[in-house]
Amino acid sequence: MDAIIAHWDFPTSVLAPILAQEYGLPSPSLDSVLRCEHKLWSRILQRESIPECVPAFCPFDPFDPDALDTIDIEFPFWVKPVKSHSSQLGFEVNDAEEFATATKAIRAEIGRIADPFDQALSRVTVPAQLRGHGGRTCLAEQIITGTQAAPEGSMYRGEFQVHGVFDMRKDRTGHSFAHLDYPARTVPPAVRQQMIEVTERYLRHVGFDNGCFNSEFMWDEEHDKLWLIEVNTRISQSHSDLFVKVDGVSNHAAAIDVALGRRPEMPYRSGRFAVAAQCMVPNYRDGVVTRVPDAHDIAAVQQRFPDTVVRVEVSPGDRLSALANQDPYRYRLATLYLGAADHDTLEQSYRDCLRALPFEFEEVV
Question: Which residues, other chains included, contact 115 with Cβ-Cβ below 8 Å and sequence gap of 6+?
Fold first, then answer.
């Protein structure tokens, strides 16, 4: 075995450094990974290193019947476990009733990730202020708004570099992602550079090295305010095909170089397309799937839009509300990976694909 890389969230993200340490392979330390993955621990360390970019936050126990009384943030705010993925169990709450509904849902599901996450935490020494705040702890956070973007890069033997910045575009509800666009264009270059500099300061503060990362930011243009959402200690699988389309090589190239102990090298704009996007095919109402695109439908889309990847994620007979790993605000039917000569063409291609891919449902009352 020469290298171990990870491009999935927990538990893969912590298994990789554990295994790499056992086999003597290059990897970030487990401590530095958990400092980023435990949302409360990360916020505390962000407040130490990049305080200008940290929204208000407050931990609470979702099993405490008086939890709302312990939160010193005014409604509305966001609630989420200190460890989850893909926005699961994250809710915007506007009043006490919505808070009660959200915590009820969290209590029912939080153990699925919290319990194994606590096993990972048991392998490191947590600071005194974090004791008692394991995987079943939640955070209330100030709601931040604006334009979202995400730098991705690597830290190799103390050398920090970024190999791409992505736009993260929300859907019409403002809660869920509709697009990941590469390269980013919605945030000015100076703000993108600020995102990169803030990420480096934070990663050096937590001792992250010999690994890849992607960080997520929100830029409030009206107030010219930059907020850090989170830092992930891995490359993103959602970015991989987009790098191929635009730069000619997957981001796995950088991850593999670092994991082999080599300085990472990525080509620049050597792909077939000028721009690319990962786009969701969503549905906002519950139902039972009765039809999905077949091979003929997908082939027709790929003939019309070359190099398009279509990943259908539901099957006939599926009840949407019973699907695993969905965010609270919509159901994901499929994921598209598109390339184009410019952003306007890319947007039109997405709309055309939505019309060309047939999904049908039986309504559930």
Answer: 135
Q: How far apart are CA 306 and CA 98, in angstroms?
A: 45
Pairing of strands 159-170, 177-182: antiparallel
Residues 66, 158: contact at Cβ < 8 Å? no
- Cα 44 to Cα 37: distance, rounded to the nearest angstrom: 12
Give the C-alpha separation, 265 to 258, whole Å.
10
Instruction: Tell me whether residue 11 is exposed, middle or buried, using C-beta atoms within 10 angstroms of its C-beta: 0 to 12, 13 to 18, 19 or more.
Output: middle
CA–CA separation, 39 and 46 (whole Å): 10
Cis before 76? omega within 30: yes
Summarize pLDDT for 125-171 with one digit per residue, the tens: 999 999 899 999 999 999 999 999 999 999 999 999 999 999 998 77
Helix intervals (H) in the chain: 12-23, 30-37, 39-49, 96-109, 111-121, 189-206, 237-247, 252-259, 295-304, 343-356
What mean pLDDT value characterizes the chain? Answer: 94
Nearest to 209 by CA among 252, 248, 251, 156: 156
Residues 6+ apart with CB under 8 A from 174: none
By DSSP bridging, strand 147-156 and strand 138-142 are unpaired
Share above pLDDT 90 across residues of the chain, in percent, rounded to a whole number? 89
Contacts of 123 (CB under 8 A, 6+ apart): 18, 30
The DSSP symbol for 45 reads H
What's the half-sphere exposure (Cβ side, CA atoms, 13 Å) at 17?
A: 23
Total-model pTM = 0.91
Q: Is the confidence at residue 306, as pLDDT, over 90?
A: yes
Span between the terminal Cα atoms of the chain, in Å: 53
Backbone CA torsion sign across 20, 155, 151, 126: positive
Q: What average pLDDT does the segment 211-228 reach?
A: 96
Structure tokens at 332: 């994901």
8 A C-beta contact, residue 277 and residue 350 = yes
Residue 228, Cβ density class (10 Å: 0-12 exposed, 13-18 middle, ≥19 buried): buried
